[in-house]
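Work package 3, deliverable 3.1, input record:
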Amino acid sequence: MKNLEIADLFYNIAEILEIKEENPFRVRSYRKVGQVLETLTEDVFKIYERGCLAALQEIPGVGEAIARKIEEILKTGRLEYYEKLKTSVPPGLVALLSIPEIGPKTARLLYDRLKITSIEELEKAIKEHKVRELPGMGAKTEDNILRGIDLLRRRKERLPLGVAQPIAQGIIEALKVLPEAEQVIYAGSLRRMKETVGDIDILVSSTKPEAVMDAFTTLPQITEVLSKGKTKSSVIAEKGTQIDVRVVEPQSFGAAIQYFTGSKEHNIKLRELAIHKELKINEYGVFRVKTGEKIAGRTEEEVYSVLDLPWVPPELREDRGEIEAAKANRLPILIEISDIKGDLHVHTNWSDGTHTITEMVERAERKGYQYLAITDHSYSLRIAGGLSEERLKEQIREIGKLNEKIDKFEILSGIEVDIKRDGSLDYSDDLLKQLDIVIAAIHSGFKMDMEAMTLRIIKAMRNKYVNIIAHPTGRIIGERDPYQVDIEQQIMAAAETGTFLEINAFPDRLDLKDIHAQTAKEKGVLLCLGTDAHNIMHLDLMFYGVATARRGWLERKDLLNTLPVEKLMEKLRQKRS
DNA sequence: GCCGTTTTCGGCCCGACTGTTTTCAGTCG
């Protein structure tokens, strides 16, 4: 079983235990292990091979009991404990938990009293008004559960960051004009720049919260109000997106941003730290337990500071070692958008882009870049107007002429060359040699098995003219899974051959993803950012690439295109010599 | 079930909203 499957298994255990009203901390332990396994870059099996149970117990949240369970899963492909546990609860009952409004207590009650074991049976019981007869239930609860079922059925996948961010921005603009609203900001996974966002959290500081709530719940883009209180409301807006708005007093704004930015795991760790210092953290501030005195809350920096920690950038707040790093004063100095000196993956109307080389260059200059790599598609990709050898030579000459005309800016002639099924490239080495930069990528034959795909890419890396592998796993978020490729081997091969790996900044891709970028950095691989722009507006997508790099703990030195042009050219030529 | 600059045992994050209650339990984030 793979990491994600094992994680799912532990999640299931947690849910069943919850229905059985087991010790909630035990439930949390299983859930925690699920979360950790999901974000682990190394295969659990490899960890186990390396050092058996002891190595497994190095994984945070894994103790002796769970290590033994993982061992059993790896050895036998199943877990006896889980198989037994499953039989103790009707299978449909766990599914009820996925309905918003229904938690373990309600699920249990529905089963004990009405023998309900599926969503369909629950619907039927509600229509017969049987649920309202149960203790603690009423007509309104029945309505809410029905609405929950409806919500579940039309619930969308998590939104890609590139979709959620503009929606949030729109709401923020609308709230900012309110005279009652002082500061407005998005928090949650959006502020942490996670690649997908479940719902949008917005935070407002105001001394008149009710006025803000009234205005928010009546905005034109809102289609449904789920709940509305004095300081907190939830609504459904464009594309079925849930938006939660929370209002706090200005003197608590910092504590509230910290609290609502999360992640949950990060915050739990912080609060545990606070307890050791006899402090209590909530969304209103940091308080002394004994006296109730408030000692921080206006800014986020204050909150971290009273815990003797430096401020932690939101992109790092995933409980993946950032608190330990902060304690030791070893937080990375994350790359900023202003560190980016140029875009290294750009298409023009020579292939499937919409704008000319000149138009792209002008836009890049206006963004303050020092260089731009023109990397149109290669011949195999006919559908995208891939360049023939002749056309590419022509483009090289054209770029040469343009470079003579401009000052203080360098246009790099490049290509996004297709890696063919056998790992060979679309053009001869003689032609590749004439380019400043060669990006290699896979655009066809996605369905190869892992071994073949990995070899295919590694073979391309061994070509001394290939500088960069573009979108190394080929995923399209929410649409296409990554191709089967051994990412660890790919990273090792990149280190060995002096090839760079791209973080494709296009928000549907973000490929490499955060945790893989981090692994690459740790293995000494240099990464580079490219927007894959097909028009001038796309050059602005660099924002999302930088966010992904930051989530991967990358610093300026870890990225190719933070270098000034001379150093960049030097790096690009290194592999050839 | 995990974990340790209080601890190898006894803790384990915190509050808003809702609906059903007459003071609170359940759910959610």
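The domain at 91-154 of chain A is CATH 1.10.150.20 (DNA polymerase; domain 1).
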